[in-house]
Amino acid sequence: MSSTNETFAVSVHILTLLAAYPESPLTSDAIATSVDTHPVVIRRTMSHLRQHGLVESRPGTNGGWRLVKPASDISLCEVYHALSHDSVLSMHSHPNPICRVGGNIHEPLQKVFGRAQQAMETELERFTIADILHDVILQAG
């Protein structure tokens, strides 16, 4: 996957899918079919989610992936943090230090970016995987 944003969306998709089928673990192939990607991409994503205690896998014929805790206990902010600790917005690396703007742009932008990051994380904390599943079920009718 090309970006943290895309990985985040795919991760929420996967966790919502697992929440929809809590009684039966899902294989990487089954998850890949829903996401419309290759199972290798799913396994790579699942590795990050497992490292952060969101999913577990069970080998064997009845094996597959499942949530470690209830979907109502997994906030979207927790998923975001499982994937990245980088800020959504970042400063360009080489503003001209001699320029009046370039030499002084870093601090004002960082202040705004920090506030925007906090606002995003606060909003993501308000929603859980269970909330997303609820909305998916409503949409599906």
List the helices and strands and how they pair.
Blueprint: H1 4-20, H2 28-35, H3 39-51, E1 55-58, E2 64-67, H4 76-83, H5 106-125, H6 129-140
Antiparallel strand pairs: 1-2
Helix pairs in contact: 1-3, 1-4, 1-6, 2-3, 4-5
Give an overview of the whole structure.
With 141 residues, this protein is mainly α. Helix content is 55%, strand content 6%. The protein has six helices and two strands. A two-stranded antiparallel sheet has the order 1-2. It is elongated, with a radius of gyration of 19 Å.
Summarize it.
With 141 residues, this protein is mainly α. The chain has helices at residues 4-20, 28-35, 39-51, 76-83, 106-125, 129-140; strands at 55-58, 64-67. The chain has a domain at 4-86 and 128-140: Arc Repressor Mutant, subunit A.
For the sheet with most strands, the description reads:
2 strands, antiparallel
Number of helices: 6
- Number of beta strands: 2
Please list the strands of the largest sheet in the order they lie side by side: 1-2
- CATH superfamily name of one domain? Winged helix-like DNA-binding domain superfamily/Winged helix DNA-binding domain
Q: Could you please say which CATH topology of one domain applies here?
A: Arc Repressor Mutant, subunit A
| First-last Cα distance | 30 Å
- Which term fits the overall shape? elongated
Helix content: 55-70%
Strand content: 5-15%
* Top-tier CATH class of one domain: Mainly Alpha
Specify the structural class.
mainly alpha
- Mean pLDDT, to the nearest integer, reads 92
